[in-house]
Amino acid sequence: MSSNESEPLVALIGTLDTKKEEYQFATTWLEAHGCKVVVLDASTKSPLDSPSSFNLGARSGLYRPKELLKSHSDESDTVIPTERSALRDALREACLGKLARLHAEGALDAIASFGGSQNTAFATSIMRDAAFPIGLPKFMLTTMASGDVSEYLGESDICIMPSIGDISGSLNTITLTTLQSALAAISGMAHACHASKKQQESAVSSIDQHNNKPMIAISMFGVTTEAVNQISELLKQRGYEPVAFHATGSGGRSMERLIRESYFAAVIDLTTTEICDHLYGGVLSAGPDRLSAATEKEVPQIVSVGALDMINFGSLSSLPARCELEDGEGPLHHTTDGTPVYEHNSQVTLVRTSVEQNKELGRYLVEKISQNKKGALARVLFPRTGISAMDGKDGVWDDPEARNALLDSIQATVKQRNESREGQSGISLEVIDHHINSREFAEIVATRAIELIETAEDAQPS
Fold this sequence. Notes:
- The chain is an alpha/beta fold.
- 41% of the residues lie in helices and 17% in strands.
- Helix 8 links the parallel strand 7 and strand 8 (241-246).
- It is globular, with a radius of gyration of 25 Å.
C-alpha cells in the first residue's frame, strides 16, 4: 500500500470480543465514506483466532489476535502468552509493529480507537509512539475523556472525544450519535492527510515552500505572550519560522518531542515555568524530561526564566493544604505565611514561588541544560527587572528578593558547572536590565538566537 492509492487507509485498534458491534459499524461507515480500513483485533479472550463473522469491503483487512502475534514474531512456532497482562503487552507490540510498517510504506492515513479505560490505555500507548509523527491523525473516542487525560496524550497530538455512553458492544441512540460524529472527524482527517501526501509527491506545494524556512521553537505562557509575539516578529523578519508552544505540560512535552525529531534549527526556551509545577506539585508539569531534548540533541538554545515566579493549580478550592489562605477579597490573596496567591480565573490559581524555591529552580534549570558533555551551544538570558507580566514594578507580586535569589543561584550553578567541564565550552549567562516583556529584551533574545544558529552552522564540517 502507498499514498498513491485513491482512498485513505484508517487503522482501527479495538477488541472485537467485547465491542464488535461498534467496530463493525465504524468499518462499514468509513468504507461508505471513501476509506479503506484495517482492523487490528486486540481481543484477549480465547479463542484468539475466533472466526466469528465480521464484514469487510474488498480493499479492507482484519487481523485477528493470533495473526497479529504471528506476523510480529520471527519464530516459526510463536509462543502465545496465556497470562492476560503479558498477552496485552505482546498484542501492543504486534499492533505497533504492524502500524509502523504501514506508516513507513506511506500507506497509513489515520489511527483510531473506541473504548473504556483498558482500550484507551492500550490504543493511546500505541498512538503516542515516536513511530507516528505529529500530524498523522490519531483519534480516541473514550469513556475516560474527563479529568486529567495527560497520561493518555503524552506529548502526542491525539484527539480525544468523550463517548457519553459506554462503548460496550451494543449500539444505542446515544452511542450511535457520538460514534457517527467521531467517524466523520476521523474520515475528514484521513482524507486530508491522504490528499496532503499525494500533493507532496506530485509537486512542491506552498506549504513545502513555507517550510523551507528554518524553524525555531519558542515556549510561551499568557504572562510572556507579549515577549513571544515581539521575538517571533523579529525572527520572521530575519527569515526564520517561529513555532510557539504553550507551557501547559502537554505543550512542553510536545516541544521536547519535536526537538528530538530534529524539526528545529534552534530553541528559544523563554518560558520554563513547567519546571515549577514539576518540582512543587502544580498541575502543568511537563515531567522530568523537560529541558533535556535540546541539550541531548545539541540544538542551539536560548534559555530564560519566564514565569518561574508561579506554580499553577486549579480552582482556589483545589490548593494543597500547605497553601492555607487568610481571609481576603478580590483575585489577590495571601497564605497564612504571606505567600501571594492570584485567582487568575475560576479554574486557574497561581501561587508565587518563594525565595528558597527560586534558589532551587535556578540550580535545577542550569543542571538540566548542562548535562551534555560535548558542550552544546546554550545561553541563559536573565531579565533583571521582571520575569512575567505578574512580576516587576507593574506586576501584582513584584518580588526583587525572589528574582535576585533566582539569578544568584543561576550564576553560582553556571560557574560551578563550567568549572567542571575541563576546558570544554559551557553555558553562558547574560543579565539584561529590562523586563522579559520589553522590546529591548525581545531584540536581544532574537539576536542571540540567530548568533547561536550561525555559530553552529560555522562549526559544521564543510
